[in-house]
Structure formats: C-alpha cells, structure tokens
Amino acid sequence: MKLFGRSWDRKSLMQHVGDLQQLGGAKELAYQDGPERGVRAIEVRTGTGFAFSILPDRGMDVLRAELGGASLAWHSSTGPTAPAFFEPGGLGWLRGFAGGMLVTCGLTYAGPPHKDGGQDLGLHGRASTLPARDVAIRQDWEGDEFRIEVCGRVRETSVFGDDVQLTRRVTTTLGESGFRLVDEIENLGHAPAPHMVIYHVNGGFPVVGPECELLTASGDVTKAGATSPKESYARFQAPTAGYSEEVYFHTLRPGKDGRTTVALVNRAFQGGRGIGYALRFPVAQMPCFTEWKMMGQGLYVVGTEPGNVYPEPREKLRREGRLAMLQPGERKRYEIEFAALGSAGEIQNVEKEIHGL
Question: In angstroms, what CA-CA distances link 33 with 83, 97, 200?
Fold first, then answer.
C-alpha cells in the first residue's frame, strides 16, 4: 500500500506502530448536544489526510468528508438532526437536511412535494431520516492491504404500505483518498413498489468558489424551468444575496466499461495546488444526473446527483409511464466510487479521463 510517499507491506508498517489507529481506521461515536443528540457517527480515517463520517441513524449517509483538513462538503445550518425530528409533509424535510457529502433521496419517492394516488408525499423521501439496523464495522488486513468496511440496513416500511430495504456497504483502504459505496435495494413486500433513488452529493467551500469547475461528459443539458441560458450550468460565482437556485438535468456519456465520471474541482485552491472530488458510476444503473447550483449566502453549494430518476414528482413519472417499479423479491444494485482530489496532477488526470468519454 502507498502511504506517506512510499510503499509498505504489513510487516514493515506494523514495526512502526503499536496500534494501527495511530494511522487510520474506523471508530463509532455519538453526538451529545442539540437536536443531533444520540445520532451515531462512524468516523473513518485513511492515513492520507482524507477522513469521512457515516451516520447510521441518518440512512447510512456520509456527512463529513475532508482532505488535509479542508472540507469537500457543504454543511447546512440544521446539523444532523435526530430521526425523531423528521417532518414528512411538504418541505419539512429541509428542517433536517444537514447537507454533507452524500444524502440518499428515496427509496420509494423523491423530488418535490406532491400527491400521488391520494397519498401526500413530502420532499425527497424518508431514506435519509431512517436509522439503520445490523450496523457493522470490519477493519482487518487482507494480505498487505488494510481494508475498512462499514455496512448497515435501512428499511422503509409501513403497515398496508411498501416494504423496501436498502443494504449499504462502504469500503476504503489505508492509504486511499476515497471510498466505494455499494447499495442493494430490495422489495421485501408482496406487491410491486415504486422505486426512486437520487444520491444527493453536496460539494461546498473551499471546493466551491468563483473558480470552481464542473467537469462532465454531458451529451445534453436541460435546465429545469429555463429562464436563462442553460450554458450557465458551468459558471459559478461568489456567494450572492437573493440568489435563486438553479437545477440542470444532464445526460452523461459512458466509457467502454459502462461507467462515467463527474468531477467538481477548484484548481486555484492554495495557489494552484487544487482541490475537489470525482464520482464514478455505471450509467446503466444511474442514467439521470442532476446538478443543483445554489450560490446563495450560507447556501453556497453545488449538488452533483446521480440517480435512477431526475427529481420529478412520482405522480408525473407514473402518468407518463416512466416510474420504475420493484417487483416482490426484486433487487437493484447501485455503485458509486468517490475520489478526493488534492493536487493539480490528480485534477488533470480526471479531466483527461472525462475528455476521453
């Protein structure tokens, strides 16, 4: 493995430490103050300056992501509120939208508040507000690689309603600046269930700034409620009073392996050192990519959001015959690779990768 500018095997590395937690690993903690009191967090460090946290009580979502002490994610004013504070109706979801690196929208509905089949559906679904069961941390050597794995199950269910379960597995290794997320979403019920999922990845300052760039292999870009040229999706600005959010729908090109790459980068960070992150995912699994551009004061964020749908009302998708359904016992798999970028060279390599698409 690569660590501190050289390669190590297990034997040589362990001669330098008594406990590997000196270098990296995973620890479970809990918040103890305010509306987030009692919320569990699993903090993961990889030894490269990259660290992230997973919240089992918030749908196994990824809250914190940092590289060398600099945040990659936007955090909202609400903090990671406890699930008991969830408000399902209308825009109540926003009272507990902590932002963070990755928020799961779904599993049976996402998008704006609306009514579907007589059922009132709030913003973006319940997944990110549900505590996980069977949460487990595994960290151990596999040959000369130290592997860290966190997994858990989130079940969205009700009497007389849908019964859908998410099984999430997040893995990384010592010496790596990133992680891999693998989800399996299964219909445990006995009737078909609607299936909508969007991975709300929220880039923030210092990645987001006037010099920020969104790098994509977009075949087409459509602006929701277009009131200005769609080309503005690639331009960013300083925090602006009274800014109205903008949403863009991208159609992304895949590579030969079926995956595409998206990156949010700031080459001007620290005199040209650069900072950012890249997402890699199979287009067949997540054909819809949404960009949320919000340049407000305090609400200074760029959402890079792969999903099996765009954030549209479930009722509209159903009416137009575009609503995905999970049959009883059916499973869907979703894979996302997250890579933190901490140098001009890493950004340039990802840019070449995207241009190659």
Answer: 14, 17, 26
